Amino acid sequence: MSSKNYKSSLVILTTLFFMWGFLTCMNDILIPYLKDIFELKYWQAMLIQFAFFGAYFIGSLVYFLLSLRIGDPINRIGYKNGIVIGLLIAGLGCFLFYPAAQFQMYGFFLAALFILGLGFTMLQIAANPYVSILGEPETASSRLNMSQAFNSLGTTIAPILGGYLIFEFFFDEAAGGDAVKVPYLIFGLMFLIGAIVFKLIKLPNFVNDDEIVKGTGALKFPNLSLGTLAIFTYVGGEVAIGSFLINFIGLDEIMGLEEAAAKNFLAYYWGGTMIGRFSGAISLSDMSGAKKYAAMALMSILSFVLIFSISGMEFSSVTPYLGIIALNFLAFVAGKSIAGRTLGLFASISVALLLTAISTDGSFAMWALIGVGIFNSIMWPNIFTIAIAGLGKYTSQGSSLLVMAILGAALVPLVQGVLADMIGLQMSFVVPVVCYLYIVFYGFYSAKFITEESSDQKPKAGFH
């Protein structure tokens, strides 16, 4: 199969990954916005992430149970139709923001987010493998890496563009939640158009031959069972930080900025993931040592320039971020493309940065917290790689369990929200500290978890 025949399809899919990342990161804008509109406590505001990412768990669980009973549902309807269904469900979730704002009902917003999350769950299951088969097998990883990079670009742009639309362009203090009406109508229309386009274009059939086994045999592998908890803590910690970052920057002892100004810094948190993913991709290439590190450094600088250009901020106000990029580069060098070692190093630095954010104030604390973003970049792929090593016929089941662990993004922010109401927002970041400490353990000791069956499949540092 020639990738040349499917260039237009890949462009559409890449756009889909961008929108997917954009809408996910929009939750970080909705949290401070709806918190003010409905005068919510922190834990109540975190129900936004609970509803959205809880849908990932419910959707994945239902899909997993159906696969055990009737076989892989996507295999029955086709990956193309699976993407179309996912787009339609996501579009419906976006359209429901209009009546939610019209009736000014917080519960209605949560229901809309839950449906949006269900649509994204379907896209997660269908779109990732579909990208891999739209072209030559030997370039499948490259195509998926490109799509994931555009997903990160979406999370980088969302705080700037989405924040501008909601906090400034459509904002009316006297109009309740009306600022979200037009943006989410536009998002809904884009998903609807995407569904129509996908239904009409000619795409190849794809059959997944992976065996779906009954029972919970996959959990007998310690690298998977412990890795499921690692995914839970990773997504939980990452989303919790992003969810509270605008409010954190708004604290008087930190920067005291309004939401409209604080949103620009959020782009550096999520943009760090993009920087780390590009660097991770190059670190796995066939380049020689010196040439590889030079390419990694150049890509990091170019990615920074992109984020800086998007944010529209003064250079003097973001120079500390260059130090964080340099630290990330050194950590990549020290990790030597070994999955567990790199994971442990990145998680250790994340713990140190979080403790700094908790114990200091001003811009130093702010940049320490923002800096965690760049070290999140390789956590999902490295944990995933380690967790499924040697699973054999249990690989599909294990993958489903790992996707279900995205539940961490629903629960961890909620736990931190409860703690923030009790002891203050700054101190509440001990919750993600605990999350990353577990990842430190899993990373450095992962080699001991992998059974003899997988001893010949030592994972390399991945990129997702």
UniProtKB/TrEMBL annotation:
<dbReference type="Pfam" id="PF07690">
    <property type="entry name" value="MFS_1"/>
</dbReference>
<feature type="transmembrane region" description="Helical">
    <location>
        <begin position="293"/>
        <end position="312"/>
    </location>
</feature>
<feature type="transmembrane region" description="Helical">
    <location>
        <begin position="78"/>
        <end position="100"/>
    </location>
</feature>
<protein>
    <submittedName>
        <fullName>Sugar MFS transporter</fullName>
    </submittedName>
</protein>
<keyword id="KW-1133">Transmembrane helix</keyword>
<keyword id="KW-0472">Membrane</keyword>
<feature type="transmembrane region" description="Helical">
    <location>
        <begin position="364"/>
        <end position="389"/>
    </location>
</feature>
<feature type="transmembrane region" description="Helical">
    <location>
        <begin position="425"/>
        <end position="445"/>
    </location>
</feature>
<keyword id="KW-0812">Transmembrane</keyword>
<feature type="transmembrane region" description="Helical">
    <location>
        <begin position="318"/>
        <end position="335"/>
    </location>
</feature>
<feature type="transmembrane region" description="Helical">
    <location>
        <begin position="342"/>
        <end position="358"/>
    </location>
</feature>
<feature type="transmembrane region" description="Helical">
    <location>
        <begin position="221"/>
        <end position="246"/>
    </location>
</feature>
<feature type="transmembrane region" description="Helical">
    <location>
        <begin position="401"/>
        <end position="419"/>
    </location>
</feature>
<dbReference type="InterPro" id="IPR011701">
    <property type="entry name" value="MFS"/>
</dbReference>
<dbReference type="InterPro" id="IPR036259">
    <property type="entry name" value="MFS_trans_sf"/>
</dbReference>
<keyword id="KW-1003">Cell membrane</keyword>
<feature type="transmembrane region" description="Helical">
    <location>
        <begin position="46"/>
        <end position="66"/>
    </location>
</feature>
<feature type="transmembrane region" description="Helical">
    <location>
        <begin position="149"/>
        <end position="170"/>
    </location>
</feature>
<dbReference type="InterPro" id="IPR050375">
    <property type="entry name" value="MFS_TsgA-like"/>
</dbReference>
<feature type="transmembrane region" description="Helical">
    <location>
        <begin position="12"/>
        <end position="34"/>
    </location>
</feature>
<feature type="transmembrane region" description="Helical">
    <location>
        <begin position="266"/>
        <end position="284"/>
    </location>
</feature>
<feature type="transmembrane region" description="Helical">
    <location>
        <begin position="182"/>
        <end position="201"/>
    </location>
</feature>
<dbReference type="InterPro" id="IPR020846">
    <property type="entry name" value="MFS_dom"/>
</dbReference>
<feature type="transmembrane region" description="Helical">
    <location>
        <begin position="106"/>
        <end position="128"/>
    </location>
</feature>
<feature type="domain" description="Major facilitator superfamily (MFS) profile">
    <location>
        <begin position="9"/>
        <end position="450"/>
    </location>
</feature>
